[in-house]
Design goal:
This protein is an alpha+beta fold. It has three helices and five strands. The protein has a five-stranded mixed β-sheet. Helix 2 (about 30-40) packs antiparallel against helix 3. It is globular, with a radius of gyration of 14 Å.
Length: about 100
């Protein structure tokens, strides 16, 4: 990819960090989000935290991140999302989408 094209792509990418509260561990939440993030072409990770929350960090075009945010708020069938704290920022160049 030419340098100019690369810089334009990077400039369009944003970062979404979401802290998710509710029944979101041991219900397939991470795999659910990983599948949707990959389908949307996003990079980042989703991770269970010791306090029962799930952290989602995703990078890519704003439109795709907004679509992922809908999935974050809804979760899979057995999840119950009580609250989502969202922070927007600049992309840092994440690669792939992983679960931890």
């Amino acid at each position: 990819m030419p340098a100019m094209e690369r810089s334009q792509h990077t400039a369009q990418a944003e970062r979404l960090t979401a802290m998710v509260k509710g029944r979101v561990q041991a219900v397939g939440y991470r795999a659910f989000l990983q599948r949707h993030a990959r389908d949307l072409g996003l990079a980042g990770h989703v991770e269970n935290l010791p306090d029962g929350r799930v952290e989602v960090l995703a990078e890519g075009p704003r439109e795709a991140l907004e679509k992922l945010l809908v999935h974050i708020r809804n979760g899979p069938t057995h999840a119950l999302v009580d609250d989502v704290d969202v922070v927007w920022g600049e992309a840092a160049g994440e690669r792939g989408f992983h679960t931890y």
